[in-house]
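Postdoc handover notes: sequence design on the structure in folder B. Input tokens:
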């Protein structure tokens, strides 16, 4: 099912890197906000007729309340052209959809890094932290930077959620703040500084092209789940750590937790993490958990004690997992200083501190594997 509408741009609204946001008068009188990806459809201006996809908007799904601009049909001069990199590349993403982009893969024979990656087969101990939700990324980085502020961090975005990296205002803000050395889009995801066919090549590029000290692997915004054990896009976190293990990296499992989720399956240790790291992951990995709760108050302290117990129970049944106690001192202050908004499932730091604190704990531990760069 796909729902199309036509309209005219009435106003330009604030956007972000790679994205133009417009207010559109639909045929029939309604007004909607719409998002245009510059690299796919070009930049609309006031008065342009635009073709919109409003399917997710009508269903109330996670598009942030936006329609999506599919085309600016009457103004060809607005359409994106072909850059030299695009002309050289032959890696097609979002394949066989009407808006498939062709990009230069980091290991494409035409590209400058092909020689570096042609025989690359070893991450040389690169710490690789994978977790479920995109919203954990700034919290992970807060934990990393608290321990190793000069660490070069590469973000690998997998294709379980949004495919265009430009959709993520979180990544735009983190890049503006200098918290990321590079972004790499893997699989069907696209729009990173580097494009990779698989998570394996993305991780190798992080190590051998970016020179990263640490790679963080998380799907784009828009986690998909069906309230079943296996039917959620976050299983890819376990697969990413398998890739890290195969390639000689140091896998770190970032747990998804919550103290405030209305769904019991996500309170304490989420069933997503139990499945991804207990069942999908087959290589040794560290599982960082908060070590102390003495300075914390309930309900946060109670939730973190529950998480420790559940993580240890998980490791008892999954001997490839090693639970690592990590001090939480200073991490709440670090989370309050992140340069982007912290929000997970509509909840911020005050509403669900356990979610962000456990992500920061994982980042702090990963930073210790890098060494003291601070």
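Designed sequence:
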């Amino acid at each position: 099912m796909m729902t199309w509408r036509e309209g005219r741009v009435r106003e330009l609204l604030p956007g972000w890197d790679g994205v133009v946001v417009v207010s559109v008068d639909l045929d029939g009188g309604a007004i909607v906000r719409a998002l245009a990806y510059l690299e796919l459809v070009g930049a609309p201006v006031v008065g342009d007729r635009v073709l919109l996809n409003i399917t997710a908007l009508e269903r109330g799904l996670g598009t942030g309340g936006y329609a999506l601009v599919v085309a600016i049909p009457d103004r060809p001069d607005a359409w994106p052209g072909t850059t030299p990199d695009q002309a050289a590349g032959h890696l097609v993403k979002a394949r066989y959809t009407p808006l498939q982009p062709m990009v230069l893969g980091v290991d494409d024979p035409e590209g400058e890094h092909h020689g570096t990656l042609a025989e690359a087969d070893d991450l040389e101990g690169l710490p690789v932290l994978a977790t479920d939700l995109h919203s954990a990324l700034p919290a992970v980085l807060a934990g990393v930077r608290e321990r190793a502020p000069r660490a070069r961090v590469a973000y690998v975005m997998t294709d379980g959620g949004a495919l265009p990296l430009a959709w993520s205002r979180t990544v735009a803000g983190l890049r503006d703040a200098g918290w990321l050395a590079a972004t790499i889009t893997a699989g069907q995801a696209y729009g990173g500084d580097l494009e990779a066919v698989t998570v394996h090549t993305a991780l190798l590029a992080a190590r051998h092209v970016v020179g990263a000290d640490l790679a963080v692997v998380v799907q784009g915004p828009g986690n998909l789940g069906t309230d079943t054990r296996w039917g959620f896009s976050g299983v890819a976190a376990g697969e990413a750590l398998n890739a890290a293990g195969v390639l000689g990296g140091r896998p770190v499992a970032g747990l998804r937790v919550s103290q405030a989720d209305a769904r019991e399956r996500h309170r304490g240790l989420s069933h997503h993490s139990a499945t991804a790291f207990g069942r999908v992951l087959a290589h040794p990995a560290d599982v960082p958990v908060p070590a102390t709760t003495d300075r914390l108050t309930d309900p946060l302290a109670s939730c973190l004690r529950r998480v420790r117990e559940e993580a240890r129970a998980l490791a008892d049944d999954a001997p490839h997992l090693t639970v690592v106690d990590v001090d939480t001192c200073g991490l709440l202050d670090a989370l309050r200083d992140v340069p982007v908004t912290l929000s997970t499932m509509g909840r911020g730091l005050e509403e669900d501190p356990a979610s962000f604190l456990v992500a920061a704990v994982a980042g702090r531990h990963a930073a210790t594997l890098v060494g003291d760069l601070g």
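Context for whoever picks this up: The chain has two domains: 4-77, 114-370. Don't rerun without checking with the PI first.
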